[in-house]
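Quick note —
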Amino acid sequence: MKVLLVDDEVELVSAMAERLGFRGVEADWTDNGASALEMAEKTDYDVAVLDMKMPKISGLELQEKLAEKHPGMRFIFLSGHGSEKDFKAGCAAGCEYLIKPIQLEDLLEKLNQAVC
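Predicted structure written out below.
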């Protein structure tokens, strides 16, 4: 499984990638949507884990752009500012949604569900 992690909290996203790597999940990360779009052009990711609220481009906007170019990609949203509106928007897009702080085991479970 190849995973793209996108979150503007650099310490969080880099630690998540490292911890996923320890569990055998190949994960790349970035802290912005523009870089995520470039990375997705060069690498085939199975799942993108997107922060809902990021500067310049939201997780939902990024999901729409990634899904348009990579229709097989699955998505999981993360939010530290969980709201019912965000939850409904994420679920309406047919995606999984986790509220920060997340447990790595919960993320692993969602990742495995996404690729099944």
